[in-house]
Amino acid sequence: MQSFKNKTVFITGATRGIGKEIGLRLAKEGANIIVTGKSTKPHPKLEGTIHSSAEEMIEAGGKAIAFEMDIRDEGQVIHAINEGAKTFGGIDVLINNASAISLSDTERLEMKRFDLMHQVNTRGTYMASKYAIPHLKGSDNPHILNLSPPLNMAAHWFAPHVGYTMAKYGMSLCVLGMSEELKKYEIGVNALWPATTIATAAIQNLLGGDEVVKRSRKPGIVSEAAYYILGRNSATSTGNFFIDEEILKEEGITDLEQYKVNPGSELLRDLFLD
Q1: Active-site hit among 126, 131, 164, 227
Q2: Residue 26 belongs to what domain range?
């Protein structure tokens, strides 16, 4: 298991939810966290800002710096990556977490929503990776981790929401291609996806509200899985589509009840997993 002490982690969408939880988990190990997102002022319906998240990560035991960054804006992405690397002396890990979702069918999906999902999910992941790679080459255990599902070409994962599936699979295709492309630099490129729904703002506000949240797990299960993945040797652990609970079981953690929002509840299987 590699140490995270003084390692630098760049996270897209680190204001709340899974991105923030991964930052907190690695900050506890002494990592430097580059927090990025669009939330710079409190929102009535969304918890936190990039600045409050950075403060929490410092309190957790790490160092942190926050950059206002729209993942669709090339200039802002370049600035955050280069300035973050300059502040901490490099980048060791890139977490591509930022994502947009709309589970509409083809007739109902507005093109502006289609464009948003593809700009944030697929293009954003590709672009952040592109500009982080020169910095990752200087690390002794460089990783890219995309929060995206395993590739499954079954039609039933496309039919209900073709636009969203295409956008999320774009992130996974980056794993498929970049893991092979970057082997020569020993940069590990992997995907991580939850086995069940995770209690995040997206679940609360877009995918069913309180009832779905009650049958979900906490973001901590994903951050714990990310911790173990990123601690592996990047030269040998690459090109994988990991599932959170499977990673924990491999690490000897079999009691997953602690991660349930409502202990004893029947969990909901997440999208893209048969």
Answers
A1: 164
A2: 8-197+219-249
